[in-house]
User: What shape does this take?
Amino acid sequence: MSAAAIPPIRFDLQLIADLIEPQSRVLDIGCADGALLHHLVHEKDVDGRGIELSAEGVNACVSAGLSVIQGDAETDLFDYPDQAFDYVVLSQTLQAMHAPKVTLQQLLRIGRRAVVSIPNFAHWRNRWHLLMQGRMPVSAALPYEWYDTPNIHLCTIRDFAILCASMGIIVERGFSLDAAGRSRRFGSGKLLVNLMGEQAVFLLRG
Assistant: This one.
């Protein structure tokens, strides 16, 4: 895939990009086809690196001229030195990790800040789906049936905020996003964003 063939970034990735300072050092974990990394490198002049599990994703990134290696974040993050990056990005991936707390610790060990985005299981459509149909919801944010989903640790915005507090992680900024891409800034544990946000983006500091 050529650099020009990389699709425009999604609204949640644009929000992540807006949180990252120009000319910073960035590690994008689970960078998929490299859309966010490409944007950061070319639009914000960052020193961008990536790690991706799938060979297809790595090939797409490398073909676009991005510095991406194939690896498993659950094991390979331990090999990175402390404070090697200004930002470490983990987008829509934490819920698929076997040990989310350990992953968060590693993000904030190797990065001065971490940007983490998650789907919000407490979104009102998910609640309504469970109430009316008695089945696990399937949506744009949660596109898998329960029996083949990679998401093994689904949580809510409130759950994540409570976890960060228990680990001594500072949420510098947090945003919820609805299905149309509209964002709302929030403080931890707010009822409205936990109900209305389809996904959330957090800027974290250890």
Summary: The domain at 3-205 is CATH 3.40.50.150 (Rossmann fold).
